[in-house]
Design brief:
The complex is a heterotetramer, with two copies of chain A and two copies of chain B. By secondary structure, chain A is α/β, with parallel strands linked by helices. In chain A, about 45% of the residues lie in helices and about 15% in strands. Chain A contains 13 helices and twelve strands. In chain A, helix 1 runs antiparallel to helix 8. Chain B is α+β, with helices and mostly antiparallel strands. Chain B has a single domain, classed as Sufe protein. Chain: A, CATH 3.90.1010.10. Classes of the chains: A alpha/beta, B alpha+beta. The complex binds pyridoxal-5'-phosphate (PLP) (2 copies). Chains B, D: It holds the Pfam family NifU_N.
């Protein structure tokens, strides 16, 4: 049995053309882009080309793109850089973010609290959506930074970034969005969105792990996160990860060409999965039904626990993820699901399927055939499920 | 992350279910923590003749429940009370550090079931 | 003509076996090491293996190694982390470093000055060596961190880390060493050196760019540089650069096997280059004659400027580097050469040749044949050289 | 980083040297900055009949010196005085931003040489 990988939200397989471009770079253009000689100049050229490709996929100019070691570093660079920079200019020390951000954003904001910043965390509705009115209420004269993600990594809900950014910027705050999950999957245009800072990561778009970028709009000043050489316009020191960056560039080019058709294809699969699995009893869809990433399915199966579900799926060759505490390394289940109002118990039973390039109609069929029996098996094991069998059959007979 | 033994018990859990008219029942954990175990025992002549479990929890929780029932089935109450968390973990070839608390739960549920049995005995 | 790459101090070609291991990882083990499923477990296994390989090359245990995006990040993590961490514990706010550190160290220390730390910069002698007595004089009760590099990237001089570390630790300071240039080239053993923190970088040892590591001795606490997921024992968040890390592990294994023979071979080449080029008039050796890295040659050619020299060498297919200001992106020539007492003029005329695995005896011959004519050509262009022709011929006739 | 024109002038610099009994000599820069240019001119009937340079400096410094001598050789003093930094950079197909100051140096050295010539003229 060919395994079915449906965890593209965690990471994606590297596209064969990306691997090829990286190998070519390592074999033929291993120079340091800072070097004067031919090896260095060749490396510099590849660096410039990759920057242009990544910039183009988000409607930016190449000089607005700073390469980083991934989405996490881009988020930290944006948040620490903008907050500290604005405070140095005497603009204030209030930050606004949302309850459903990735830990790279939330924990960076929390670390800033220790530096004396005040952080307001906006609530979300039961679909995981931030409301513009909530931001309006939270904005203050001393708000220096608003950071709200473009699309959520767990439930796929897409935020109204355009309106949020307009509002924040009208009040003089810098606006950052974490677009790690949306970049390359749905249209992301920095000018249309009107953001000052935007983070992206290569390994979510069939590029290599360990590369990301931060878009920095003209005029936005950031204090650096680290110090050293004069690479990346002195904003991000260290010898550039050239093969990785070339791979990111290639992945961006491929995404640009294929994005629209792929989004339509995956939306079809997504909807089949959601509709199919929702026919089971005691299942809840997490995230907005339509205003969500094409590749994201997130459901809670009552009475069972996520890690067990993942292990059972794994035994059937299906790779997925869960918001269960047992898989997060922390004691609590997904902060995203809790912020959406789910009980601990139901959050523990969540399953995320994230579709991608390698998935086929057959994979969807296989999942739709496999999950019901697994859910039934685990429910049979569950002390919470007693007396629900009756309800189940009722629902099924309807 | 899990040993083969853990996965084997997880894939084929022994003694799943509920004993209808149990001599004793123990339940520990709660759903908001992500782990609930219920163990029911049938005791005859101070021997655990039958034991069954139901568990809501991760792979380690299910495997420890399963191996725990296997370890004490046919044993005397006194022998069963000597079952330690470490023995449960050892019987599975070890558990990842983050999952060690699951072995506590299984032994605890068993001890609760025995306590329940003893309490009922006292009443009779 | 086959080009001669002698800039291994800037970066190295990626070893073919490293490329192979990285390609295999990207093609077969693309999972996220944090994932529960088979793809994730396979990735985790590779991550653990690579960590063991890198640890082994420095005599550390795997759990003491934190992977980073390179030497620069490792240096920053060590310096900011230890200094801020020690201050939080009320240990003081005095830092000691040396005048010949890489900018990743020097500029991080300077940035800490803005946070209220006091920084003492130890001088070096004319060979670039830090003297133990200087550290002894500089150490204070409130010294929290001493950071001195193992081997210098420009002139190759090796520092007496063992004594320096012993002294610093006896006074309660954390000791960090930047071993980016020595790791994999000469023996580096964290226990023998007695350091608390040690930085290394993969792309200097035929591994990929964009990966490095920080060794953290047991019990040493660092405040993190960035926040996010729970990777790398919560010390360095972000999805791990798995192919890069696997490449680093492979490169470490190869270095471990070949290091001794390679060091002997390159020392021979180095000495031929130094002795051969020192026969030219008005040439000065920079760095210690013997207590230097096997692969490093650094000479100043009076009356000529380094960038011109590099370009001429480049036209002859030779890739090298220089401490000239024109190649550093700053206005001043190498701070290392200036700290060693060189005049600006002579520092501008420095040439660094750094040998490596691909170099052969013939490369050395070619360089020894090519440099004299280039130096002569540039001197003929130089207004500083007038009247020196006579001297030259004198020297040559001797 | 450099244009082909820059590299061509760098590889084959025109008018290298020193005019023995020059009408005027200009020297700018200093070694500690990494750039020194000396331009000597031979002027006849207000025309720059010959011009030579010596330069200690980077590739751009050498190329700008070279192209500068080429641009004004055979020109009148007045025409030469009109030579701007931009014209020097343009003649090379442009210079990297960090190197633009090198084009200043070349034009400055030329202007100094002309000033020196004029000063000497005045004295005679
Ligand atoms: C929304 C979001 N932000 C940030 C990150 C972190 O990106 P990276 O793993 O490249 O550091 C991720 C992925 O893990 C993500 O999904
Ligand atoms: C001594 C030293 N430290 C730090 C670094 C920075 O390493 P990286 O380029 O991997 O960030 C280098 C290399 O550039 C170096 O030579």
């Amino acid at each position: 049995m060919q395994p079915v990988y449906m965890d593209h939200g965690a990471t994606t397989p590297v596209h064969p053309e990306v691997v090829k471009a990286m190998v070519e770079t390592m074999e033929k253009s291993f120079g340091n882009p800072s070097s004067v000689h031919a090896f260095g100049r060749e490396a510099r050229k590849l660096l410039d080309e990759a920057r242009a490709s990544v910039a183009s996929l988000m409607g930016a100019s190449p000089e607005q793109i700073i390469f980083t070691s991934g989405g996490t570093e881009a988020d930290n660079m944006a948040i620490f850089g903008a907050a500290r920079g604005m405070r140095l200019k005497g603009k204030g020390n209030h930050i606004i973010t949302s309850a459903v951000e990735h830990h790279a954003v939330l924990d960076a904001c929390k670390a800033l609290e220790k530096e004396g910043f005040e952080v307001t965390i906006l609530p979300v509705d039961e679909d995981g959506q931030v409301h513009v009115e909530e931001l309006e209420k939270a904005l203050r004269d001393d708000t220096v930074l608003v950071t709200i993600m473009h699309a959520n990594n767990e439930v796929g809900t897409i935020q109204p970034i355009q309106e949020l950014a307009r509002l924040a910027k009208a009040r003089g705050a810098v606006f950052h969005t974490d677009a790690v999950q949306s970049f390359g999957k749905i249209p992301v245009d920095v000018n249309e969105l009107g953001v000052d800072l935007l983070s992206a990561s290569a390994h979510k778009i069939y590029g290599p792990k360990g590369v990301g970028c931060l878009y920095i709009a003209k005029g936005v000043k950031l204090t650096p996160l680290s110090y050293g050489g004069s690479q990346e316009r002195r904003r991000r020191p260290g010898t550039e990860n050239l093969p990785g960056i070339v791979g990111f560039g290639k992945a961006a080019l491929i995404s640009q060409a294929e994005m629209q058709a792929e989004a339509e294809r995956l939306t079809r699969y997504r909807d089949r999965l959601i509709d199919g699995l929702m026919e089971l009893p005691h299942v809840k869809l997490n995230g907005h039904r339509t205003n969500r990433l094409p590749q994201n399915v997130n459901l809670s199966f009552h009475f069972i626990e996520g890690e067990s579900l993942l292990l059972m799926l794994d035994m059937k060759g299906i790779a997925a993820s869960s918001g269960s505490a047992c898989t997060s390394g922390s004691l609590d289940p997904s902060h995203v699901l809790l912020a959406m109002g789910l009980s601990h118990e139901i959050a523990h039973g969540s399953l995320r399927l994230t579709l991608g390039r390698g998935n086929s109609e057959e994979d969807v069929d296989y999942i739709l055939n496999t999950i019901p029996e697994i859910v039934e098996r685990l429910r049979a094991l569950s002390p919470l499920y007693e007396g629900k069998e009756a309800v189940t059959s009722c629902t099924q007979r309807r | 992350m899990y040993t083969e033994k853990v996965m084997e018990h997880f894939a084929n859990p022994r003694n799943v279910g509920e004993i209808e008219e149990a001599s004793g029942v123990g339940e520990v954990g709660n759903a908001s923590c992500g782990d609930i175990m219920r163990i029911s025992i049938q005791v005859e002549d101070n021997i655990i003749k039958d034991i069954k479990f139901k568990t809501f929890g991760c792979g380690a929780a299910i495997a420890t429940s399963s191996v725990c029932t296997e370890l004490v089935k046919g044993k005397s109450i006194d022998e069963a009370l000597e079952l330690t968390n470490q023995a449960v973990a050892d019987a599975l070839g070890g558990l990842p550090p983050a999952k060690m608390h699951c072995s506590n739960l299984a032994a605890e549920a068993l001890h609760e079931a025995i306590a329940d049995y003893k309490a009922k005995q006292g009443k009779e």
